[in-house]
Amino acid sequence: MNILLRAHSGLRYVVLALLVAAIVVAFSKWQKSENGDSKLYLFALIATHTQLLIGLILFFMSPKVNFDLIKEKVFRFYSIEHGFMMIIAVILVTMGKARAKKLAGGDKHRTILVFYSMALIIILAAIPWPFRNLGAGLF
């Protein structure tokens, strides 16, 4: 359990870095109306899906997920808010990559830019940062 939790906590920084990098690349390629794809888009997709799989395993194993204590802030966050928002973010990343695959030129990169940016905002809001007092640290 502890290994999965550490992996999930550490992988968040990889996911954030890949999403930010993909957004920057998508913006620059969109401005230049370049054709072609970036492997960075795929790496960001793979990292978010890996993070989701680890998160789902933790969801079913974690003592912080308790629907009987849903009125308490920490249990509500881990039982409902965190998982729901992260699943929406992964869906946005997946939809963005799938839609972009069908497009060409600047439209492809604009699609990645929009979907990955929305996902990044949701992920940043759903991470249990230490300042939110949810019982999580930086790692």
What is this structure's SSE topology?
Blueprint: H1 2-32, H2 39-61, H3 73-101, H4 106-126
Helix pairs in contact: 1-2, 1-4, 2-3, 3-4
What is the residue-averaged pLDDT? 89
Through-space gap between termini:
14 Å
Look at the helices and sheets and give the structural class. Answer: mainly alpha
* Estimated share of beta-strand residues: under 5%
Order of helices and strands: HHHH
Shape: elongated
As a whole number of angstroms, the C-alpha radius of gyration is: 16 Å
Q: What fraction, in percent, of the residue positions are helical?
A: over 70%
Structure in a nutshell:
The protein has 139 residues and is mostly helical.
Describe the overall structure.
There is one protein chain. The chain is mainly alpha-helical and 139 residues long. The chain has one domain. The chain has helices at 2-32, 39-61, 73-101, 106-126. α2 (39-61) packs antiparallel against α3 (73-101). The chain is elongated, with a radius of gyration of 16 Å. It starts with a helix and ends in a 13-residue tail after the last helix.
Which features does this protein show?
139 residues, mainly alpha, 4 helices, 75% helix
